[in-house]
Write a structure and sequence with these properties.
There is one protein chain. With 104 residues, this protein is an alpha+beta fold. It has a three-stranded mixed beta sheet with strand order 1-2-3. The protein has three helices and three strands. It has one domain: Fe-S cluster assembly (FSCA) (GMP Synthetase, Chain A, domain 3, 2-Layer Sandwich).
Length: 104
Amino acid sequence: MDEEERAQREQDLRNLIELMRPAVQADGGDLCLVDFDVESGVVEVELRGACSSCAISSATLQGGVERILRGRLDWVSEVVGGVDESADPFASSSLGRGAYVPKA
């Protein structure tokens, strides 16, 4: 893989994350790109804000974020992630409803 293809994959990934963020932010959370390897296809993300205390955050990661990334970027082989463990659960839960699942 040449440098141009690496750069294109990174840009496509960043653009897609930015496209998904408003849906998560609409419910008081956020989606952050933590790390990625365009050659192995592993992408690491983190849910923050209201997502830190949301009971369905793992479903959002697997059913939403992973499904979209793998569906639109054929080089993505695995999406790993979690929630921001440093967030105060009471402050986090006050940021949003915590049950929003976008239709997509």
